[in-house]
Amino acid sequence: MEDIIKDLNQISEEEGLALVELAKIAIREYLKSDRIIDLKEIPFENWKKKGASFVTLERKDTGELRGCIGSIIPFRPLYQDVIYNAIASATKDPRFNPVSLEELPFLKTKVSILSFPQILQYKDPQDLLEKIKPFEDGVILKLGEYQGTFLPDVWEQIPDKEKFLSHLCLKAGLPPNCWIKYHPEIFIYKTRIFED
């Protein structure tokens, strides 16, 4: 197996909080100079390993989402994944206008590190409902070319399993009953979240 982050407990609190700082610096630098930062020295060994991350930006006052972009499968060093996803979250999330430099002090930054997705075998919609764990599982739904994912923290907004899966179908560009009608592939993963 290549050098990838296999266990989320590998990442210490110190490393995780440093990733949040890295995300903030990457966004600030990009908004100021259009430059994607790179590190001359990598401060932690784990950062060199391939890792998948999501960077979420929220307004500090209301908790409203302001951008969220990430990778599901590890394909580049963790620190680079965080840099690129941080910039994309601030500037390329199609749901929002790009973040402005003036807005940055009012935003909270969250970095979620993802475990490697595992396929979830299930017989029928009822079995699927029994097997997914709210507030624990991040869920990827895949049907042909269509794919969407919700991080585990989305359960806080949509705690109902049926609604959660219906919204996930919509996010993937499918009808809301796709999980009942078509038996899509389901993968689950865990996350470890660090925030400022």
UniProtKB/TrEMBL annotation:
Q: Which Pfam families match?
A: AMMECR1 (PF01871)
Q: Which residues fall in a coiled-coil region?
A: none
Q: Per its UniProt record, what Gene3D superfamilies does this chain match? A: Hypothetical protein ph0010, domain 1, Hypothetical protein ph0010, domain 2
Please list the residue ranges annotated as the AMMECR1 domain.
14-196
The region annotated as signal peptide is none
Which PANTHER family does the record match to this protein? Answer: AMME SYNDROME CANDIDATE GENE 1 PROTEIN, AMMECR1 HOMOLOG
This chain's protein is named AMMECR1 domain-containing protein
Q: Which organism is it from?
A: Venenivibrio stagnispumantis
